[in-house]
Amino acid sequence: MSARRTELSRRGFLAGSLLFVAGAATACISDPIGGGAKGAGTTLNVWYHAYGEAGTQQAVVRYAESFTKAHPDIAVKVTWVPGDYAGKLNASLLTDGAPDVFEVGDFSEGLARRGQIAPLDDVYGPAKASFNKTALGYVTVDGKPYGVKMIDDVIMLHYRKSVLDKAGIAPPADFAALRAAAKALTTKKAKGLFVSNDGVGEAAPAMVLSHGGELVSGGEVGYGSPKAVEAITALKGLHDDRSLLLGFTTDWWDPSAFAQGVVPMQWCGLWAMPAIKTALGDDFGVLPWPASAAGGTPYVRVGGWVSCVNAKGRKVEAAKSFVRWLWVEQTDLQKDFASAYGLHVPPRTDVAAATGKLAEGTAKEAVALAARYGRSNPSTWDASVSGPLVTAAAKAVRGQGDPARLLADAARQAQTAVDEQLS
Amino acid sequence: MTTASDTTARAARAGSPAAVPRGPAPARKRRTDRRAWGAFLLLTAPVLIGLGVFKYVAIGWSLLLSFSEAEGTIALGDWVGLDNYRRLFADPAFGGSLVQILLFTLAVVPVTFASSLGLALLVHRVRRGRAVVRTAFLIPTAVSYVVASLLWKMSLFNGLPAGIANTVGGWFGMEAVPWLQTTEPPLFWIALITLRLWLQVGFYMVLFLAGLQAVPKELYEAAALDGATGWRLLRRITLPMLRNTSVAVLMLQFIAAFQAFDEFYNLFYGGISGTSSAPVQTPLLHLYNTAMGAQNYGLGSAGAFVLTALIVLVTLAQGRITGFGRGEE
Amino acid sequence: MKTNRPPRPATGAPRPAVRAPRPPARGLRPAVRGLSIGLLTLLFLAPFYLMLRNALMESAALTSPEWTWWPDVMRWENFTALFDDPALHMGQALGNSLLIAGITAPVSTLLASAAGYALARIEVPGRGVVLALVVATLMIPGSATFLPTFVVVGSMGGVNTLWGLIVPGLFNPFAVLLFRNFYLRLPREIEEAGRLDGLGRLGLYGRIALPTSGAMLASLGALSFIESWNAFLWPLVIGQDPSAWTAQIALSTFLTSQTINLPGLFAGAVVTIAPLVAMFLIAQRYIVEGIATSGLKG
Which of A331, A391, B220, C261 registers the highest number of CB atoms within 10 A of its CB? Predict the structure, then answer.
C-alpha cells in the first residue's frame, strides 16, 4: 500500500514540476519584460543608470507620463539600472529586450560606427543652435549628432575651508601644493584627500591632462607620452605619501566621505553640491585639479549623460520623438532635471542661463571653472581605451613596474581599440 | 540541436547491425532492441539535447566566433583568421591574469586543504555536541560569494579606522590601512583568502570527515598495540587512508580556484572604471570585461577557448598523475 | 521530497549517527582541544552576527569610529525599506531566485537520474559513445564557457528571460555520472521482480529504480538548490533587466552602485541567506550526504 502511494506522489511530483517548467516557460516567452501601459500602441523601453539623488527616479517617471499625455499612442516604461550600467546595457543591446532609448555616460564613436545608435540630426531642429558647442561636438560623429546631451556634469576638487584655514594651508594652486596639503592634512585617524576608492580610476586621466598630456587626440592614444609618464609618476608620489583615502564604503561620486568630515578634500561632481551644502553649509570651496608646475593646465572634467536611440530597435521613430520632446523641446523639464535633485548644467545655453541655482555662490564658481578649464573625455573613451590606462596606472602607483613601459604597452593596446572604433 | 540528433543518428546506425546476427529469433530480438532503444532515448534525450545545445553547439559557435571580428554583435561572418588569438597573446593583461590566478590557486588551495583537514581531525574527536560544531562550520557554505564579499568589503576589511580588521590591527599597534587596496605588502590577499576559507572550509571538512569515518578501527588498534601515538598515528595511518579523499579535495579546490570570479568582481568593482584598477585580475574577470565591457565577443571567445583548453589540459594531467577520475567500472 | 522516503540503500555516504572509532586522545589535551574548537566555532559564526548587527544599525553608526556591539534601537524598518525601494526590486528578485532554484533543483536531479539509469541499466549498442559524450562535458569548466553559452542563449532570445536563466542549468553531467554509479550497484533481483510483473523498461525505472533513489535525489537536489540560489556569473550575464534579476544580482548591484545604503545592503544580505540557512538547519543530513557523495564519487 505504502509503496503504491509513494509512487503516486512521486509521479505527481514529476508531473507537477514539468507543468511548472512548461508554465514558467510560456510565461517568459509571452512576456519577457512585462510592464508597459495598456491601450497604447507602442511601448518604449527607456533606460537610465541609477542617479544617486533622491527624487530623480520619480522625476523621470513623471516626465515619461507627461510624454504619454502628449503622445497618447506611445507609452514609456522607465527602467532604472543600478550597478554595472555599461555592462548591462551592452549585453541587452544584443537582444530583443534592448532598450529603445538609453543614456550613456562615456559616449563612444564605436556605438555610432557599429550602427548601434541612430543619427539624430532630425531630432534637434532649430534648437540645435542653443546647445553649447562642447555638448554638440561630443556626440558628433562624421558630421552627424548621434545623441542629445541631457546634462553636463562638472567634476572638480572640493575642499573644507575651515580645515585648510586651521592648518594654515592655502587652496592648492599646483600639484606640488596639493600633494603637500594632502600630506599635511593626513593624521593617524584620517587621510587628506579622496579621489576614488582605488586612488587611480579618476586620478589617472586627471593627472595626465593636468600635466599637459593627452588621452586620445586626433585618433592617437596619447597616454604613452613622456608627459603622461611624468604625471603617473607624480601620482605615485601621492600614493607613496599614504595621504589618499582608499577603500571607503562609498566611492568618489558620492559626497559622504567629504560631507561626513572623513576627509577634507574630495574629487566629486557638481551633482553632489546640494547634499554637501546641507551638511557643511558654506564651509567648502571648489578648485580645478591643479596643474603641474611645469607647463600643465588646471583640469575640470565635464562629464554628463547622453540620450541615444537604439538603431536596431523596432521603434526608432517613436524613440526619436521621445528624445526630441524631452531633451530638446521641454526646457522646463530639462531645468527641473538639472537643478531640482542633484545639480547639473543643462547643455542648452538658454536653459542654463535660466537656472537660478547655477547663478549663485559656489555653483556659479563651478560653472565658471568649467567654462575656463573644462574638458570632456574623448569620444573614443570606452572601456577598451580607458581600461589599459587605469590598469597601467594602478600597477605603476603600486610600484609593480616601470611607469614608462607600462604606459607605453597600455597605449599600444588602446590604440588597437581606437583604430577599430574609427575604422 | 544538430549535435544531439547527429549523435543519436550515429548511435542508431551503430545499433542496427549488432542486432542482426545474434539470437535464434531475430524478429523478436529486433523488437526488443527497438523498445530498449526507445526507452534509452526517452530517458537520456533531455540531458543529451541540453548538453548538445549548451555545451557542444555553444563551444562550436564560440570557436567560429573566435575567428571572426565580432564587436557589438554575436553574428558570424566577418572572418579574421587568428587575429583575435594574436591580439589575446599580445595583451599583457590576459597573460597577467593567468599568472595571477595561478598564484591565487597556489595560495588558496594549500591553505584551504590544511584548514579543512585540521578542522576535520578536530571535529572528528569531539564526543559531545559534534553535530552542533559541524553545523557551525558547515553553515557558511550556504552563504553566497556576493554576501561574503559584501561583509568583507564593507565591514571586515574596509579602509576606515573603525573597520574590524583595522580595529583588531589597532590592538597590536598597526596603523589603519585600506586592506583591499594595499599591495605593499599585498594585504588584499588576506581578504581574498579568508573569504574563500570561510565559505569553503566546511564543505571540504565534511568530505574529510566522511573519509575519516571510513578508516577501519582495527588499524588504529593494531597500531596502538605497536605503541604508536599522536603524530605517528596521524602520519602512518590517518593520512595514507585519506589519500583518495585528499586527491578529490585537491582537484575540486583547484578547479574552483581557477574559475574564481564572484568575489573578485564584487570586492574590486570600482564604479565607472569597472574592475580595471583591481590589484588582481582573474581570467574570467578579464573575459567578462572584454565581452560585456568592451563588447568584443570575438576576442572574448578566443580567451574562453584558451582558458578552457588550459583547464582541460591540467585536469587531464592531474588525472594521469593521481589516477583520479577513473570511475569504478 | 522528504515524504514517503523508501528504504535507503547504501550511498557510500557516512551515517552521522554512527560514532566513529577514535584513536586514543593523547596528542592534544582535551581542554585545549575543546577551547580551540569553541573559539573556532565563534569565529565561523561571527560574520553572521556582524551581518545581523549591521542590518539593524543606523547608517551613520556603521562608519563611526565608536564600536557598538549591538544597536540600542533596532531598526527593523531597514528590512521593510528593502521591499519598498522601487529601484532595488528585492521582492521580485527573491521571487525569481525561488522560482529558478525551485525548478532547477528537482528538474535537473530527475533528468540526471533518468539519464543515469539508462546509462547504467539499459543495454543498447552505442551506449559507451553516449556516456563518453556526457563525460567529456564534465571536463569543460562551466564558468569558462559562460561566454559561448551566452552567445547561444543570446541568439535564441534568452537574455533577460527566466528560461534563459533556468534552462542552461538543467543539465548536470556530474549528477548523471553519480546516478549511473548508483544504479550500477542496484541489485538485479529487485528489477527482476518487477520484470516478472510485466513492467517495461520505463516502468522499471519509474516504479522500481527511482523510488530507491530518494536519498540521492534529496541530497543532490539540495546541493543543486544551493548552487542555483547562490549562482552569480550566469545571472549577471543573462539577467540584465531588473525584471530578471536574482537575489544575488540585486545585492551585487547595490554593492557596486552609485549610492549605498549600508544597513539596507546588510538587511538584503540577511534576507538572501535566510532561506538557505533554514534549509541547512532542517535538511542538514541530506546536504552532508550530498557533499560526501558528490565529492568522493567523482
Answer: A391
SS3 A374: strand
Secondary structure (3-state) at A300: strand
Write down the pLDDT at residue A86.
83
Residue B51 and residue B94 in one domain = no
Residues A158 and A148 in one domain: no
The DSSP H or E segment spanning A220 is: strand A220-221
Contact A251 B183 (CB under 8 A): no
Write down the domain spans for chain C.
76-296
What grid cell was written down for A138? 561630443
CB count in 10 Å sphere of residue B299: 27
Residue B262 host element (H or E): helix B262-268
Q: Are residues B39 and B161 in the same domain?
A: no
- Kindly state whether residue B31 falls inside one of the protein's structural domains: yes
Res A292: pLDDT: 87
pLDDT > 50? residue C7: no
Residue B157 lies in a domain: yes
Interchain pair B289, A387: CB under 8 A = yes
Please state at what angle helix B92-125 crosses helix B83-90, rounded to 10 degrees.
70
Nearest CA-CA partner of B269 in A400, A203, A249, A84: A84
Q: Which residues in chain B are closer than 8 Å to C130, comparing Cβ atoms?
A: 7, 11, 44, 48
Q: Which residues of C128-157 are buried (b: 16+ CB within 10 A; e: fewer)?
A: eebbebbbebbbbbbbbbbbbbbbbbbeee
Q: Which residue of B has its CA nearest to C14?
A: B210
Residue A221 has pLDDT above 90, yes or no: yes
The three three-digit cell numbers of residue A216, written as one number = 586620445
State the residue range of the domain holding B27: 2-65
Under an 8 A CB cutoff, do A17 and C110 touch?
yes
Does B46 contact A at CB distance below 8 Å?
no
Same domain (yes/no): A241, A130: no
Contacts of A94 in chain C (CB under 8 A): 154, 159
The domain in which residue A283 lies consists of 154-301+378-422
Instruction: Say whether A337 sits in a helix, a strand or coil.
Output: helix
Measured distance CA(A394)–CA(A199) in Å, rounded: 8
Q: Give which of A91, A93, A35 is closest to A64, Cα–Cα.
A: A35
> Across the strands, what pairs with B68?
B79
Between chain B and chain C, the number of residue pairs with CB atoms below 8 A apart is 330
Assess A7–C contact: CB distance below 8 Å, yes or no. yes
Per the rule left: phi > 0, alpha: psi between -120 and 50, beta: everything else, B173 is: left
- Is there a single domain that holds both residue B151 and residue B214? yes
ipTM over cut 0.90: no
> Cβ A7–C206 below 8 Å, yes or no?
yes
* Closest Cβ opposite residue B292 in set A87, A189, A387: A87
Computed over every residue of chain B, the mean pLDDT equals 81
- The confidence band for C259, taking pLDDT boundaries of 50, 70 and 90, is low
- Residue of chain B minimizing CA distance to C129: B11
- Which among C3, C237, C253 is the nearest to A9, CB-wise? C3
Kindly give the interhelix angle for A175-185 and A226-240, rounded to the nearest 10 degrees.
10
Which CATH number goes with the domain that contains A408? 3.40.190.10
One domain, residues B162 and B255? yes
Number of domains in chain B: 2
pTM, full prediction: 0.82
In terms of domains, do B92 and B42 share one? no
DSSP C243-278: GG--HHHHHHHHHTSSS--HHHHHHHHHHHHHHHHH
Let me know whether B279 and B130 are in one domain.
yes
* C76-296 homologous superfamily: MetI-like (1.10.3720.10)
Residues B148 and B194 in one domain: yes
Percent composition of chain B: helix, strand, coil (DSSP 3-state, to 5): 75, 0, 25
Contacts of B160 in chain A (CB under 8 A): 247-249, 262
